[in-house]
Amino acid sequence: MDGGTVRASLIQIGVDPDETVEARRARAASLVRGQTGSDLVVLPELWTVGAFAFDSFEAGAEPLDGPTALAMSEAAREARVWLHAGSVVERAEHAGGTALYNTSLVFSPDGERAAVYRKIHRFGFDRGEATLMSAGAEPVTVALPGITLGLATCYDLRFPELFRALTDADARALVVPAGWPARRASHWSLLARARAVENQAYVLACGTAGTHAGVPQAGRSAIIDPWGETLAEAPDAEERVVTAELDPAYVAKVREDFPVLRDRVLR
């Protein structure tokens, strides 16, 4: 991480229903390995099966040490990057049986698993993910050299209280992988900027291209700074890599020069 800055790259991977999960996993690993000049690489939500491919969740579920985790661990190690590997459908064993979670995984440049975040807010209004998956319980942060990341996933973006909790845990960059539909693309861009402005933190919003079970994706992956300025953004929903430099010192400067966070009354 050069001069205290963090070079972050978002891989807006395309989801093609005609591509096998195995082929997409190998392609994603290759894309990660291609980001050797970056410090942090981020993949989108449920890029293996598709965020709206509800019928595939059970068959596509994996344990935390499943094939996607193994492939992403190896890719992070080979590229020597911190990798937020997006999310997978996790099958977890409990005393009462099994449960599915929408689970994000973060790997260190050594390929070690550094963090696990189970999505707290499940989308669907009593359908889809909301009925098929269990909810995570705790906000999660992970400390990189020089900057702490706060983890959220897609629908979480609509719940500012989660991001406040992450900010209170010293997150300076908020990472949001998503499978956000094109019909609500304006909400995606608006809410990502709002979370950056109100928390005075970087937001790394990584979406998918292509379609998930026939649902066109918004794309529009973006890196937004603590003042709400967009540093880099995918102009469309094609497969792209979006890259920008994060400066932890700038977060401190914005919070010092315009200290709104200290005026909070309700906590």
From TrEMBL:
It comes from the Bacteria. Pfam families: CN_hydrolase (PF00795). The keyword Lipid metabolism does not apply. The keyword Hydrolase applies. Residues 6-248 form the CN hydrolase domain. One of its GO terms (molecular function) is hydrolase activity. Keywords: Hydrolase. Belongs to the carbon-nitrogen hydrolase superfamily. NIT1/NIT2 family. This is Predicted amidohydrolase. It comes from Streptomyces radiopugnans. The lineage of its organism: Bacteria, Bacillati, Actinomycetota, Actinomycetes, Kitasatosporales.
